[in-house]
Amino acid sequence: MDYGMIGKIEKAKRYAEERDRINFEEFVVTFDGENNPHTVRFNGGKWQCDCDFFQSRGVCSHTMALERILEQMIPETETA
Question: SS3 for 41?
Fold first, then answer.
């Protein structure tokens, strides 16, 4: 039995529950929208999405969905 791995698994479970330990700095995701895939970026506390709605409004369903998914894991954000 690999006791070192068991310890790491337990630590990972604890980290997963302690979400305040994780601070997102930046990331890029592809969001499969209803019409097309869209690239969504988070960098420096700001969202960016390549969809037309975001370009005109600075917010869109893609960024709002990710804010919900990552609730309390990212700082209060402002749009680009």
Answer: strand
